[in-house]
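Example: Putative N-acetylmannosamine-6-phosphate 2-epimerase.
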Amino acid sequence: MRFTPAEIVDRLRGGLTVSCQAYPGEAMRDPRTMAQVAQAAIVGGAAAIRVQGIADIRAVSELPVPIIGLWKDGDDEVFITPTAEHARAVADAGADIVAIDGTRRPRPDGLTLTETIAQIRAHSDVLIMADCGSLDDAIAAEAAGADILGTTLSGYTGERPKTEGPDLELIAQFAEHCSRPIVAEGRVHSPAQAAAALAAGADSVCVGTAITHPSTITSWFVAAIAKEANE
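Written out as structure tokens, the predicted fold is:
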């Protein structure tokens, strides 16, 4: 392992994780491109990088910051590193942290979250980040043995409304009821929102779209200009 668990948590705390992902079929959907985007983010001060897919994880595995790896697969509700087998592959590809679906929903392989985490632990010494959608998810994930709790799935599981920006209320709930490090992730679209997430109780903030997804960023500007032009 490149970093000790304490070193990883220390690097995350008070820092920015940049999620470097592109959707299938997009011009930037290439591991080499994502690795270059990750390198640029590190130059800007990113404390960690989050990437999706085995090829992308391998492409960034030697970068000098912790790598959060995940594998999106399947059409079921649970698709972020949905099984223990996926998680083992993510660890083997070089991730320092394996991000998994941390909800209480049924998994494709029939294992519970506790069983999934136990199988990951038996295979590798990586840290495990639980992508949660509610406080109940976070409490269950912490009890199951997750090392890090993310608000990644807030607004996507039916338990909480989809907020305009980060779910600051959920972050505060995590901080009050859980003891694991908290990563605020999901709809963080500005530096001000990132700062607000830390103020709400997050230990770290993960930003993806607003930094690494040119198509979406461009659409924000286009929509704003079109609105002004039509008034």
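The first helix runs from residue 5 to 12.
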